[in-house]
## 1
Amino acid sequence: TQLLEQSPQFLSIQEGENLTVYCNSSSVFSSLQWYRQEPGEGPVLLVTVVTGGEVKKLKRLTFQFGDARKDSSLHITAAQPGDTGLYLCAGEDYLHNNDMRFGAGTRLTVKP
Amino acid sequence: GAGVSQSPRYKVAKRGQDVALRCDPISGHVSLFWYQQALGQGPEFLTYFQNEAQLDKSGLPSDRFFAERPEGSVSTLKIQRTQQEDSAVYLCASSQLRNYGYTFGSGTRLTVV
């Protein structure tokens, strides 16, 4: 059982469309991180959210941390082919030495 | 250095062979982490160092896996008697503070044949 469940697992859209991906858990996190990973590379940190209800914007990307700090979402406006990649969320696992645990990711493909 | 450097980028090992994977973290980063990423999955935690101390090795899948960071900078992940299920990408990450936000290397893709 994954500590962090990400949905959808796969998403294929056309350039210009909007999309939202989700990261859910039954655990409470002090913070959640979002990463993007491209083929053959390591994950790259996009944002860290720390406060329940927090919304952070990074250009066309909007990240939200749930009020109860158990879930998070990533919304992309007007997706571009350069947004293609694996989007991963990660949070501390208090049951396992506070190790940072990752979800399985959402694989996004944006077609031109 | 400017980023986290891992070597080799690719390693093909025959089953039963020992391998050593190297990680050069960002200079001054206290925390260093190793993750294993299977195809189509998210990274799975292996082990964590704070300086030279290995504070958590709970994610190492068996006693064939061993990691060290003797001088608190470069780290090596060693896998003895490799098996096919060890085939994966091994990622190293470093950070100034634990769980503050990691910088990952590009990984080493290990294929055991």
Note: The CA atoms of residues 83 and 110 of chain A lie 7 Å apart.
## 2
Amino acid sequence: SAVISQKPSRDICQRGTSLTIQCQVDSQVTMMFWYRQQPGQSLTLIATANQGSEATYESGFVIDKFPISRPNLTFSTLTVSNMSPEDSSIYLCSVESTTRGDEQYFGPGTRLTVT
Amino acid sequence: AQTVTQSQPEMSVQEAETVTLSCTYDTSESNYYLFWYKQPPSRQMILVIRQEAYKQQNATENRFSVNFQKAAKSFSLKISDSQLGDTAMYFCAFTHGTSYGKLTFGQGTILTVHP
């Protein structure tokens, strides 16, 4: 399985500011994914990031609010823009398995609190 | 659209005993995969077990096994010889063959193992 790291692990941010979350994988992967987990809730897919193309966003998520970069096959960033308290969540990146495309491995998550 | 339902918000079990977590799903797809993920307090999502829909044989991973009832669209997780380290949130998840990576999660079940 892939080893995935995320930075920062947690942050407390002011309303109206932006935070960029980094996701680094120890091997090259085609597809990376960003999920949001609101307090006490399940995970919801924000977008799929393929290297060399625009990210594909799920219903309810827009690029202006959650811009994503995917500059190479081992790295991606998610920015949470113009934050409000409702953005307080855990943000997780995941990657597809290189042996079983249906499986995903997750990073440790970034806990964001917006005050 | 696919839906995944976990009807047990919380479960508890004594150490060394067996517990079963329930999951039902709804889909019109024929080629799909089901998963159980574990999220301990550290919040790292860990893949516990995977089931391919076209396989009738139930998946098993050490103390973890599933009861996959395709006609009933049921996918329960059995944990045998429960250990304190099994205490976590457990998520049932689904993806289908034409949309790898788009995991749909259930609401989660908090499992507490008591000594």
Note: The longest strand of chain A covers residues 43-50.
## 3
Amino acid sequence: GAGVSQSPSNKVTEKGKDVELRCDPISGHTALYWYRQSLGQGLEFLIYFQGNSAPDKSGLPSDRFSAERTGGSVSTLTIQRTQQEDSAVYLCASSLGKQGTGQETQYFGPGTRLLVL
Amino acid sequence: AQSVTQLDSHVSVSEGTPVLLRCNYSSSYSPSLFWYVQHPNKGLQLLLKYTSAATLVKGINGFEAEFKKSETSFHLTKPSAHMSDAAEYFCVVSDWGSQGNLIFGKGTKLSVKP
């Protein structure tokens, strides 16, 4: 079946511009996560959506980062006024259920490679 | 707070020899632990997971890991390495305190020599 998909696969932008990254989770998965993978920082959690609950934004590095999830499915991660240090691979994951349900295994998309010049 | 330490940033083995990738964790709760693999220019793929059932967990591609609470370890092993195993491997703990987001180790790059 279809896995998690992300678009674009690569994005090059100029410093100061805004970018939008899209994630399509696996159909029926209620939980959606965004992570960032950058050199020297490893993989870090950004934000988590679970059903209709308020998202857990505790990992967002600054107020330039925001995300929304429309209709409990597709999610968009927006980075405003991009900086060079935002260059990284942005990964999206989804899971059938939340922690403690036995359905919390996260399945990852291929990522969006962002380069800020 | 939960954390994960992968003890080796790079491991090199010869094809056909055993693989050992070491991982120690710190958790205030009964943890859920995972190993993910990332091949070059590919997405993260789940190898195996531990969620408080059997302490010896078998995963895909012949990998397995043993949860040892007394040692707070979750080392990944494979009896015989294959060239296709060359990749980066991440030990991961699920952060109960944040409703399940994953905390990743820094990764171990596995090289397999012919």
Note: The domain at 3-113 of chain B is CATH 2.60.40.10 (Immunoglobulin-like).
## 4
Amino acid sequence: AQSVTQLDSQVPVFEEAPVELRCNYSSSVSVYLFWYVQYPNQGLQLLLKYLSGSTLVESINGFEAEFNKSQTSFHLRKPSVHISDTAEYFCAVGSGGYQKVTFGTGTKLQVIP
Amino acid sequence: DVKVTQSSRYLVKRTGEKVFLECVQDMDHENMFWYRQDPGLGLRLIYFSYDVKMKEKGDIPEGYSVSREKKERFSLILESASTNQTSMYLCASSRPGGGYNEQFFGPGTRLTVL
């Protein structure tokens, strides 16, 4: 079985401040980890993913996440947020040979001008 | 531009009605999924299909059924809608294989059951 925990349901942060959205997972096999973003009134879209190799992965719009196997975490960070980053962010975990992906409960990031 | 489209953005139905939600993808993906999204609960998998006419139950299949007669189309059916099925419904598709493939999502259908 696999599961994902996003402890923070809402994170308010001022524009240009740094942010960290937390994600912890559990799985009995090796994992693949994802962050998806949902802008208002839209479906989800992939932000970044970890499959293997370097534990630090980056997105094109300045977000990064680090896979930490010992702490079973995959926290999402951005050093300076913009108003346009206001959205809901979902962490997800998949595992080999199992086509389903398990999503977390989501974290709403509210960037305050 | 790859796309997953859903037949309606907003839908209002009455208790007991049979409801069809349609999803179409143009990426020739084998896998298709139906989720419901509720505040504080995230996305929960209702059903998924890994090939035409093939389906598997997800985490919350009760009260729902699905149909996949063509590769590009995956339908979610509420046999007798109830108020507790008021929710946002999201369709997604992906390539086959393990849980390492990106899922592509439609814009969602917000269903209200009165």
Note: Chain B has a mean pLDDT of 94.
